[in-house]
Inverse folding.
């Protein structure tokens, strides 16, 4: 019985935290993402050298061959630092698709470039959840047609993972393929790049699994994405809490630091009382993804939906602790607020995710 | 991350499971460790059997009537899980075995241990806790009930409140001010008081649930020997605080939450309104989903805290949030159950159409009491922010300026 992070996992977190603090503070991030949302200014390459890009890639393909809980640890710190870079789509969703649905030839073709940070793969996956009426991708005669909205990590992507046919088909598409149009979408969160893809007879470079029967791998990809988003929220809201406590200890009003007022202390206590049990849930979901297949999907839903409630509560409360200054642009606190805001909506709003969990448990048909 | 207890514990688990199955007929109905105050002969016999097998009083030394095993948290967890799962009683619990006995083992004299522990474990002596007073709730160290020295005795005068099982108790362990000249915290002693002492009167204290879960206890020059002080005179605050830790963990057990959640799920599946099962109503189902995630978070959090204890590491601020977060989830679960019954959710007092013998309304009110008892939510928030986050204490009130 050892419900805790290993020494290696703690070291991973520590080295990542140090890297982000030194090389990629929020003041640097601000400048990087002014024009291009999600632009990382070369930091992804540096993160790849630290092993972040190839975390889930097996050692034989140049990665570290680690598990989902390790990815959770990394995602938490990336959220903590509101780090730009295509961790979710390139380092998690694409490797999960290839490892759970791809042939060994496909794995050998794509995984090494992912692990070194040379290839960046975006994820067009809103076939899986919350598809809009005016979107959708279908496969016909070996080509893809339609439109995918809110494509994740689209900035600088050289390829896209594309879900089609209502989550029954999965393909890799070259970003420069003929028939493919990419339009950048801007969200409140500049640290990540989103796009809309228009596919008009795009021939994929790979089909992952057989077109029309890739449901299982799609589900794995979705579960992984939800767990990583939950971990991102955990890190981002944890940092907002750290900032609120630090600010409350230095800001003085009425000749006292405001952190000595119970009204303020209690806000901080409420935040941490929500955050710490939520951390335990995210760890469990990460562990379950690799070790407890029967619980994996439901736990991914619980982690995603719960953190999507806890995270916004914390970033909003942390902003309130800062008072007026927390609302200003220059204080930068809003980077965490916005990161959490986007995480909450991605891969299913909490209500949608809970409805899935209810079906998965047989509460409803 | 390793969630299995390992092969060395699997044998132990199988043994406890077999015991629960083989002896099920002998177990009294009460599920969890009920207080000895309600203990009939069957429960006392069952408790004796549990101790013989090492499934109760496991780590209490043999010389004091326990089983005498080395402390092993995982075995304790396994015993708890398997007796619960097997539907048999966990034996006698409550404030004697769970709060007084650990205190005596830590701070009692040999004579006190010899005299009190064995009969307490076996349900022969029932205890109540005399801490809170009408004027001393959150500010517990301000208790005023005083023990005035009179020869070898103290004459105790004052009033205690929120005293669970006082009417059934043989003894009280209480905080009494014996050193009137010492500073607030240094003036208290931890004293064992026989409840049949002349000058003690117990009055039941009804609560909003309609039951009298608590009592008030009045002292009028009740004579208690000074040898009944545990530890030294004036050490009472330190000694009482050690046991309050046990109480807070007792109040927010994640196993209880899990059981409550299962009950709410069954309720939503069995209740229906306007021809629709409550579980088929997306609004109720969504509320249930939210609370399920919170309940699971508390369950996994308890596993994380257990790991810290096993490694003898401090859990930091994460270790301080259990009571606050757990009691809140518990209250919200019962609120959902009441709502799911609609208008019928308000039925009580064995009314026709009442569900689960009024369990949900009763628990809804009782869990509000848990949010307040054992250190209010607000006191918990002070502890979390001060000890956990390192924030400053509330400055002491300034005396009013003189004209």
């Amino acid at each position: 019985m050892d419900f805790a992070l290993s020494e290696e996992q703690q070291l991973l977190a520590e080295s990542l935290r140090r890297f982000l603090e030194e090389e990629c503070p929020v003041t640097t991030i601000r400048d990087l993402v002014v024009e291009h949302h999600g632009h990382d200014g070369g930091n992804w390459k540096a993160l790849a050298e630290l092993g972040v890009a190839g975390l889930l890639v097996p050692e034989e393909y140049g990665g570290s061959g680690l598990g989902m809980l390790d990815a959770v640890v990394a995602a938490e710190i990336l959220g903590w630092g509101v780090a730009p870079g295509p961790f979710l789509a390139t380092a998690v969703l694409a490797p999960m698709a290839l490892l759970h649905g791809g042939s060994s030839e496909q794995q050998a073709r794509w995984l090494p470039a992912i692990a070194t940070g040379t290839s960046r793969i975006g994820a067009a996956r809103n076939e899986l959840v919350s598809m809009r009426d005016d979107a959708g991708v279908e496969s016909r005669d070996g080509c893809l047609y339609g439109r995918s909205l809110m494509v994740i990590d689209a900035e600088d992507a050289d390829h896209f993972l594309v879900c089609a046919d209502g989550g029954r088909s999965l393909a890799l598409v070259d970003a420069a393929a003929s028939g493919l149009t990419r339009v950048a979408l801007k969200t409140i969160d500049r640290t990540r790049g989103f796009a809309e893809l228009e596919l008009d007879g795009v021939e994929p470079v790979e089909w992952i699994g057989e077109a029309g029967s890739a449901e299982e791998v799609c589900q794995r990809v979705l579960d992984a994405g939800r767990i990583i988003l939950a971990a991102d929220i955990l890190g981002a809201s944890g940092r907002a809490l750290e900032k609120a406590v630090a600010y409350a200890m230095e800001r003085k009003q009425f000749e006292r630091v405001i952190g000595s007022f119970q009204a303020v202390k209690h806000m901080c206590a409420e935040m941490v009382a929500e955050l710490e049990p939520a951390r335990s849930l995210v760890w469990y979901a990460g562990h379950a993804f690799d070790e407890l297949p029967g619980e994996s999907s439901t736990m991914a839903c619980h982690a995603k939906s719960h953190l999507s409630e806890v995270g916004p509560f914390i970033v909003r409360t942390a902003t309130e602790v800062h008072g007026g200054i927390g609302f200003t642009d220059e204080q930068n606190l809003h980077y965490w607020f916005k990161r959490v805001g986007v995480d909450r909506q991605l891969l299913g709003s909490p209500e949608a995710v809970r409805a899935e969990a209810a079906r998965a448990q047989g509460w409803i048909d | 991350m390793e969630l299995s207890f390992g092969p060395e514990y699997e044998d132990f688990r199988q043994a406890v499971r077999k015991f629960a199955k083989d002896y099920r007929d002998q177990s009294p109905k009460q599920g969890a460790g009920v207080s000895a105050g309600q203990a009939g002969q069957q429960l006392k016999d069952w408790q004796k059997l549990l101790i013989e097998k090492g499934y109760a009083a496991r780590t209490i030394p043999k010389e004091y009537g326990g089983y005498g095993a080395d402390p092993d948290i995982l075995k304790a967890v396994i015993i708890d899980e398997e007796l619960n799962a097997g539907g048999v009683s966990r034996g006698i619990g409550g404030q004697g075995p769970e709060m007084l006995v650990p205190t005596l083992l830590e701070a009692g004299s040999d004579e006190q241990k010899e005299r009190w522990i064995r009969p307490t474990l076996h349900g022969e002596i029932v205890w109540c806790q005399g801490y809170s007073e009408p004027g001393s709730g959150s500010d517990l160290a301000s208790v005023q009930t005083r023990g005035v020295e009179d020869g070898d005795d103290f004459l105790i005068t004052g009033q205690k409140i929120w005293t669970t099982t006082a009417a059934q108790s043989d003894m009280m362990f209480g905080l009494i001010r014996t050193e009137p000249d010492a500073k607030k915290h240094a003036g208290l002693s931890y004293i064992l008081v026989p409840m049949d002492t002349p000058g003690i009167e117990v009055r039941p204290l009804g609560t909003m649930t309609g039951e009298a879960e608590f009592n008030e206890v009045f002292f009028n020059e009740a004579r208690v020997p000074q040898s009944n002080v545990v530890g030294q005179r004036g050490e009472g605050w330190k000694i009482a605080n050690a046991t309050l830790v046990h109480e807070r963990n007792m109040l927010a057990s994640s196993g209880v939450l899990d059981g409550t959640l299962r009950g709410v799920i069954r309720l939503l599946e069995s209740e229906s309104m306007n021809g629709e099962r409550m579980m088929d109503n997306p609004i109720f189902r969504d509320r249930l989903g939210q609370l399920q995630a919170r309940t699971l978070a508390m369950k996994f959090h308890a596993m994380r805290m257990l790991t810290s204890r096993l490694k003898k590491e401090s859990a930091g601020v994460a270790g301080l949030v259990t009571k606050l977060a757990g009691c809140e989830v518990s209250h919200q679960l019962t609120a959902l159950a009441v709502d799911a019954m609609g208008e019928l959710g308000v039925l009580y007092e064995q009314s026709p159409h009442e569900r689960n013998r009024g369990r949900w309304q009763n628990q809804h009110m009782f869990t509000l009491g848990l949010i307040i008892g054992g250190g209010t939510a607000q006191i918990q928030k002070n502890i979390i922010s001060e000890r956990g986050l390192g924030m400053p204490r509330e400055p002491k009130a300034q005396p009013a300026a003189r004209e």
Q: What stands out?
A: The longest strand of chain B covers residues 214-225. Chain B has eleven helices and twelve strands.
